[in-house]
Structure formats: C-alpha cells, structure tokens
Amino acid sequence: MAERNVLLKNVTHPFLVGLHYSFQTTEKLYFVLDFVNGGELFFHLQKERTFPEHRAKFYAAEIASALGYLHSIKIVYRDLKPENILLDSLGHVVLTDFGLCKEGIATSDTTATFCGTPEYLAPEVIRKQPYDNTVDWWCLGAVLYEMLYGLPPFYCRDVAEMYENILHKPLHLRPGVSLTAWSILEELLEKERQNRLGSKEDFLEIQRHPFFETLSWNDLLQKKISPPFNPNVFGPDDIRNFDATFTEEMVPCSICISSDYNIVNASVLEADDAFIGFSYAPPSEDLFH
C-alpha cells in the first residue's frame, strides 16, 4: 500500500515513474506503470564502466530533483541505486521502485528500519541508529561516485568488510574529475549525517553547491536541457536497452489464464483486508500519454 500511495503522488514530477492503474486478483497485486525503455542506469554503467563528468552531473541533478520532491511531500526514498534509475526514450532520468519508501518523514523526523542495498547504505543505517532524509543524499553521493569511478565508494565483495569501510574508511577520491566534483562527493558522503550536505536545508543545499553552478534548475525541471546521451529508442516496443536476461524470462503468471475463471473480476472485498483500497483508476480516461 505504501508503494501505491507514493506512486499516486508522483504524477506532478517529471523524473518519477507514473502510475496509471492498480488492481488486484485474489492472489496478486498489480501496478500498471509508465513503460520506460531507455534502460537502467545500471545497464549503461555496465556497458561503459564510467560516465564523463558532464553526463554524471546531468543524471545526478535529475535524481536530486526527484529526491527533493519526495522529501517535500515527507517521503524518504531509502533505496537509491543504479538498478532503480531508468532512462526514458530521450535519456532523461526516471526513478522507480518505491517499495522501501517511508512516508510521513518531515525534515526533523527520523525512522530506524534497517533497509536498503548494502553498497549504498549510509553509516547511520548500518549502525541501526535513527536516521532522516539525509540517507538519500548519502545514496546520491554513492551513485555519483559510481558514475564517475565505476564502483560504489566503499565497495568490497565481503559485505561485512564493506560495512566496516562505510563506517570507518576515509573516502578515496582519485584524479580525473573536477574539484567541485570532489567537493560534492566529500560533502554527500559525510559519515556524520548532521554534517552531511542536505542536513540543514535539504534539496536547496544540493542546488546551491558549486558542482551545479552552471545548471538552470528550472530548465532541468521542464526538460529543456538536452540529455547528454540518447538511448536511440526507435519506438514504444523497442527493448534493445534491456538486458536479455530479463526480456527472455517467461512471464511468471497471467491474469487471463487461471483455474479460477472469475479471478480477473475478483472483488476488493474478496482480497486480504490489508489491501482494501489498493485498486486505483484515474478520474478521467487514461490514454497512457
């Protein structure tokens, strides 16, 4: 239900995936979302290893804009990683997968659930301390670092050792990027959350950082800035930017084939009480535009 609620609030932001419908059968819940076929950021990073700084900056800005919007409506994202960052057909960022989002967290509020993806966890999450929306700015720093250097900042195959690195190892910044890139990485990947970039004025601090000095945030939000990379999508059914591992998978189930021939008409009342109110249709006809 939390993911559905977050999706319903995304309609006003250009860098968040949109929900068209949600419905349920007696066995499953379904979301009908935007089809975004420019590929995962993870997919493109695997192919190219690193991005030029201007390209990484563009993606970081659009991601930050999406996170800033979520924070403004009291939502902490908590699972930023390249697999959850898609590119649309033109190359703009689309943030997806809101399953770990936490609602109702204002700037001064904290939560304590241990969740996220190991490579991108903030130190306070690993310590199982109360944390706030600055965990998202840590994750932004980790993703930006990975775009510039090819791996998350404290990466190790041994998860326990990686946690130790995140908690105690100094940030290592190699040559090859600008001083302002070094600066924002150091400030986003600050181990003490109260000193982290974004801890005082949230998204405003990100916008004001010299790394983004030449960027017009208004133009960015209106998609007036041309993306630095074109996924070369040739139509709405083009899947060239998806890994074949996924596109060759069998569909695990179908709402059209079932031993229960009435399953597609299952009433909300027939489902678990926990999901009453899950089904959603827009107030006007949705043509998926």
UniProtKB/TrEMBL annotation:
List the SUPFAM superfamilies hit by this protein, alphabetically: Protein kinase-like (PK-like)
Q: Pfam families from the xrefs? A: Pkinase (PF00069), Pkinase_C (PF00433)
* Superkingdom, taxonomy of origin: Eukaryota
Instruction: Keywords in alphabetical order, please.
Output: ATP-binding, Kinase, Nucleotide-binding, Phosphoprotein, Serine/threonine-protein kinase, Transferase
Its Gene Ontology molecular function terms? ATP binding; protein serine/threonine kinase activity
Entry keyword annotation includes ATP-binding: yes
Q: Where is the Protein kinase domain?
A: 1-212
AGC-kinase C-terminal domain residues are 213-289
> Which Gene3D superfamilies does the record match to this protein?
Phosphorylase Kinase, domain 1, Transferase(Phosphotransferase) domain 1
| Annotated PANTHER family | RIBOSOMAL PROTEIN S6 KINASE
Instruction: Please state what the protein is called.
Output: Protein kinase domain-containing protein
The source organism is Micrurus lemniscatus lemniscatus
